[in-house]
Amino acid sequence: MHSLLDKKKCIIQSALDLIQEHGFHGCPVSMVAKNAGVAAGTIYTYFENKDSLIIGIYEYVAEEIKKYVAERDDASLTFKDRFYNYWKNLTDFYELNPSAYGFYDQFLNSPFNSEEIQHKPNAWLDFAYAFFEEGIKLGEIKELNPIVLSILVNTNVNSIVRIKKNFKKKLARNNMELDEISHLIWDGIKT
Fold this sequence. Notes:
This protein is mainly α and 191 residues long. Helices cover 75% and strands 0% of the residues.
């Protein structure tokens, strides 16, 4: 059983790396199979077709983001500190996993992110919703829709990671820290 899960994970990681480099359309199943060191037919053991592979990768990445951020959440801290940890941990995950970050960002802005997919359970989005809902219940953040709060925070983290990646030298040259953005967001949502 372990080797089957390892093989599936190897296929997903191979696809993530290739999609990061070539995009969805420049990455045929045969290329993924070759890169993963498996026969093309092996991929079809786990995924019906390329579209289901892409959706499977999306679900895998969402679960990995959730796992990374959730495992580092400390409920004994103040919600303010938990918020800053959430921000830092999401940023860290994206920076430590550039192929997962690139895939997730590309997926959300692609036709694969259909209405049907958006209505399916998503481990990461469910965790983020529950996180902000808890902050509301604790009276620490404004009574806004947790989805709106999640969008506000997650898209800002996403933008910061992209800016840090694309403008690294310019940020260093101008001695610019982007951490203050998290403080601005906190100030906007706290009660």
